[in-house]
Amino acid sequence: MAFLPIFPIPLSPFYLIIGTIYGVGFSLIATAVVIFINLSLAHYLATGFLRPVIDNIISKYSFTIPKVYPTEYIKLSIALRIAPGIPYFLKNYLNSLAGVPLKSYLLISWPLEMLWALAFILLGESIFEGNFGLTIYSICLVITLILIIKLIREHYAKIY
User: Are 94 and 109 in contact (CB under 8 A)?
Assistant: First the structure.
């Protein structure tokens, strides 16, 4: 779970399964560590090892990676986390490529990803255990997260 999402491999199936194997408590702790490692590794790769390769590819298509001002780090991290359609691995790289420092990046990305992990771990556990009440609760949590993201996007759309 820490290394596969560096590539275009989604985390959601892992979240759905891990709770059934290890239980919700341990799964949340393990997932918190795994997400932290994955985010840190993606940042390291995008700002270090892979940066020259990415810059080379981007320059071939006459694009440039915009630099973000320090006052915009948190806004960018939130915007990328709530943007629909952008794969998880790409969100991680885009934050780092735009110059968002690791601390700001983790401060926003880690808790937001943990909310999704919580929702999907509970959903997977409830479905496999046949706990209808927890399934409804988990689905409501996922819907709530989707609605919150929708409200945040609408709020930012009005501002910008």
Answer: no
